[in-house]
Design brief:
- It is found in: Membrane.
- By secondary structure, the protein is an all-alpha fold.
- The chain has helices at residues 3-8, 10-19, 57-72, 84-92, 94-103, 112-117, 148-170, 176-193, 207-237, 241-266, 270-300, 310-332, 339-367, and strands at residues 43-44, 131-133, 140-143.
- A hairpin with a 6-residue loop joins strand 2 (131-133) and strand 3.
């Protein structure tokens, strides 16, 4: 496939490769589940007597449940096709998925596949594409990537969630939660006022910035909890924070980048994956240390003392060695990285990790 064509299909192929690795969530590329994330359920054009709307209270409840199930409980879809272990994962992940759905707005934009399915003569210019599932003689379920109730709820809870996490971490400024509640009510009313069940508001695309902010807040909250759990295990088993950070926490923190970089490289974009290997740590070090250090120095008015431990010194030597070697070796090989270079990087990591563990073990024994 030519490079231009391959790049043109990159986004769709990458999204498909990543989404289909999920065990508990259904495939978004399945025509039956294109609407996942936000859904507007509408029943129309009933031509068969067997497809009349239910008249009993239980039937109406089940009909509503089927409509909201893909939005708030997507892990329960295709229940009969799941294995017992995947069913266990699907049930245990319900609380987390529900919290994310209630607080995290997701803006689904139009893509080429949706445009090819929709008849342009039957669609308004300002309306999101409608995907029709089923034949003309059956019940027509219209999914247009928009759920008014879900977005209204998200606009109410997202500011409150953000303010609660930030004030809890700072241990002050709890009155900001009241202001966040007022802001959330205002945003919900705006969404409710300028939207309908079929059409989102004109500023629907701007909600992606709210989703980005809420996603960062979730990452911050989960990272703090993971660190606390690791510190608790360290205290129980007598393992220092340095060893936990160099081994378990480092692997867990980089696992997502590892999977994403390998996927991108196998799809034929090795330069992008290689750049991400350097860009990710660079972003963490410069922005993470820079922003937090600037905030603390501005708040306290004193510089932050930094103590270089032996394990940190060994890690710094390992990083500098790999960077200097890459500057020399990679250009000499015509910017081609072979298998030997990969084994060299793995060897440097193993050596640094073993040396750090030995240093920590010897230090802990000398302290006792």
């Amino acid at each position: 496939m030519p490079v231009e064509a391959r790049r043109g299909h990159f986004d769709a192929h990458l999204e498909q490769a990543l989404l289909r690795q999920s065990l508990i969530l259904p495939d978004h590329h399945d025509p039956n589940y294109r609407h996942l994330g936000h859904v507007h359920y509408q029943t129309s054009t009933i031509t068969s007597p067997d497809l009349q709307p239910p008249s009993t209270l239980t039937g109406k409840f089940m009909d509503k449940l089927k409509a909201i199930l893909p939005v708030y409980f997507p892990t329960l879809l295709d229940w009969d096709e799941k294995s017992p272990f995947v069913k266990f994962l699907a049930v245990t992940s319900i609380p987390m998925v529900l919290l994310l759905t209630l607080t995290l707005p997701v803006v689904e934009l139009r893509d080429e596949e949706e445009e090819s399915i929709v008849d342009p003569t039957e669609q308004d210019p300002g309306q999101l594409p409608i995907i029709t599932v089923g034949g003309e003689e059956d019940t027509i379920n219209k999914y247009d990537g928009w759920c008014r109730t879900a977005t209204t709820t998200q606009m109410l809870l997202a500011p409150i969630f953000f303010a609660a996490v930030v004030t809890s971490a700072a241990q002050q400024g709890y009155l900001a939660i009241v202001g966040a509640f007022i802001l959330g009510v205002s945003l919900s009313l705006l969404v409710r006022r300028f939207s309908t069940e079929e059409r989102p508001p004109r500023f629907y695309g701007a909600l992606c910035f709210v989703g980005f902010l809420v996603a960062i807040t979730w990452i911050f909250l989960v990272a703090n909890e993971v660190v606390s759990i690791l510190q608790a295990f360290g205290m129980i088993f007598g393992v220092s924070d340095a060893i936990l950070g160099l081994t378990i926490f480092a692997m867990g923190n980089s696992l997502g980048d590892l999977v994403a970089n390998i996927t991108i490289a196998r799809m034929g974009f090795p330069r992008m994956a290689f750049s991400a290997c350097f860009g990710g740590p660079l972003l963490n070090m410069l922005l993470g240390v820079g922003i937090s250090g600037t905030y603390m120095t501005a708040k306290t008015g004193t510089p932050i003392p930094l103590e270089i431990s032996p394990t940190l010194f060994v890690s710094m030597i390992g990083v500098l060695l790999t960077l200097l070697t890459a500057i020399i070796v990679v250009p000499r090989n015509g910017y081609m990285m072979g298998r030997s270079w990969g084994w060299f990087l793995l060897g440097v990591y193993l050596v640094c990790t073993i040396v750090n563990v030995l240093i920590e073990v010897m230090t802990s024994k000398s302290d006792h």
